[in-house]
Design brief:
The structure holds two protein chains of two kinds. Chain A is mostly helical. Helix content of chain A is 68%, strand content 0%. Chain A has two helices and no strands. Chain A starts with a helix and ends with a helix. The mean pLDDT of chain A is 72. Chain B is mainly α. In chain B, helix 3 packs across helix 4 and helix 7 crosses helix 8. The longest helix of chain B is centred in the middle third of the chain and has 22 residues. Classes of the chains: A mainly alpha, B mainly alpha. Chains A and B meet through helix 1 and helix 2 of A and helix 1, helix 2, helix 3, helix 5 and helix 6 of B.
Chain lengths: 57, 163
């Protein structure tokens, strides 16, 4: 097998790996949803921290 | 305190909106490196969480694109390292025009080091230039050519041995 054939075999393989027509189910969750989750997590962490600090003598 | 959170929230949502534009491209990149649609979904989720959590990311377009590509590529490499060697490939390969051949190629690719799998996907899959590959993998330009040649030679050896 020649070097050129290896390159062509690989290029054709990657070309067939295209973005699926239907977006994968787990990717339907938008990046904004991830951001909302992250923000909620940060806020809750902050609230928990305040709560812990307030309880300290 | 309230203002600080509001500002953080608006910044976070602005960043999310920017990243949303690059989700399809990022998924395709992760899919070509990993060859596994389930893994590629996980890579994109993880990469975007990292990008959302980063204190700063580039604002301007060429630098932003480079940064996103680098993060997705690094995440793909991390996930490939953690993947079990004999993980079932059949179910996770997306439907292609030639599933039998693609499965054989993917099995041969999976025997390469993760660095070689990544560079072949960037060069032959994404069609990146040497400069773009060097930026994405954070390696010198001179290393790109030699690593690519080694990767192709190693793949050829495995492919011919399996024939």
């Amino acid at each position: 097998m020649k070097e050129r054939d290896v390159s062509q075999l690989l290029t054709d393989h990657y070309d067939r790996l295209v973005y699926p027509p239907q977006p994968p189910s787990r990717l339907l969750e938008s990046v904004k949803d991830q951001a909302k989750y992250l923000f909620a997590l940060t806020t809750n962490r902050a609230k928990a921290l305040v709560h812990t600090t307030e309880q300290k003598p | 305190m309230t203002n600080q959170f509001t500002l953080q929230q608006s910044q976070l949502f602005d960043r999310a909106a920017t990243l949303e534009v690059y989700r399809g491209e990022s998924f395709r990149l992760a899919l070509r490196i990993t060859g596994n649609s389930t893994l590629a979904e996980d890579v994109v989720q993880t990469a975007f969480l990292r990008l959302l959590q980063a204190p700063e990311i580039p604002v301007f377009l060429p630098e932003l694109v480079k940064y996103i590509r680098r993060t997705v590529t690094n995440c793909s490499i991390d996930f490939l390292r953690l993947q079990r060697p004999q993980e079932e490939l059949t179910d996770s390969l997306p439907n292609t025009e030639n599933p039998a051949l693609d499965l054989e190629i993917r099995q041969a690719l999976s025997q390469l080091s993760v660095e070689h799998q990544a560079i072949l996907a960037l060069a032959h899959g994404e069609g990146y230039s040497y400069r773009e590959i060097a930026d994405t993998l954070e390696i010198p330009m001179g290393t790109v050519g030699s690593r690519l040649n080694h990767a192709r030679a190693e793949f050829k050896k495995i492919w011919e041995a399996n024939e």
